[in-house]
Amino acid sequence: FLIDTATFSLLYVISLFCMLAPDFDEPELTEGDIAVDSDSERNADPCTSSGCRWPKSSDGKVYVPYVIANHYSSRELQIIQRGLDSFSSMSCIRFKRRSNERDYLSIESRNGCYSYVGRRGNAQTVSLARSGCIYHKTVQHELLHALGFNHEQTRSDRDNHIRVVWENIVENMKHNFNKIATLNQGTPYDYNSVMQYHRTAFSKNGKPTMVPIPNNNVSFGQATQMSQNDINRLNTLYKCCEYLTSHDTIYCLQFNKILVC
Fold this sequence. Notes:
Layout: H1 5-20, E1 28-30, E2 34-36, E3 62-68, H2 74-86, E4 93-97, E5 104-108, E6 113-115, E7 123-128, H3 136-147, E8 162-164, E9 210-212, H4 228-237, H5 246-255
Parallel strand pairs: 3-4, 3-5, 5-7
Antiparallel strand pairs: 1-2, 6-7, 8-9
Keywords: Hydrolase, Metal-binding, Metalloprotease, Protease, Signal, Zinc
Binding site for Zn(2+): 141, 145, 151
Organism: Pygocentrus nattereri (Red-bellied piranha)
């Protein structure tokens, strides 16, 4: 069939754009926002060993290099930067602009909000899509994944605090509620954790997929920022003992099998 010159020009521009546009291969996701490279990682907790932690510097700080893609607006950048900077006031974690470090976070607007768990080596994506992910709590949530943490509802002691309502979960999403041998680090289950999903996550019918026990009226999954337990776990994992209370410092020392921090 025949097309006019204007239409042909438009189609040509579109095809050229498609050829030049980045072709991102999105990773497989589990639990909604955790990127994995293989099925074997679905139920794994990579941070059970020190290999997944970002290294500690001689000055006692943990520097995590990052780059941010240039497709965010100034307001979006402010929210992302606020999330990055929030860690420095409550832990020894310091997110810093990458210079030439091999391992770093690449913060980009891809398909949704997601991150790998722990340090992976080389560039690793933290996706903060411009549509739906640019919130302080979401930035902190994904950064905690990148630092080595999983979701609260997958904790090894989950069944003592949350009853999973399996019949309300989308069938092919049930794996998202598998428990993991998590590093709870002496902290209690925390309904207020920024890592706790909301009551109807992955629901197929709008009904709850999680019910708190023994009191099913307890509010959860409503955090707007990291809880004190989130902060304590972070500081324990990274031996930021000076940021912990005296009791937590003792646990920090015991957990890391050292006498001094």
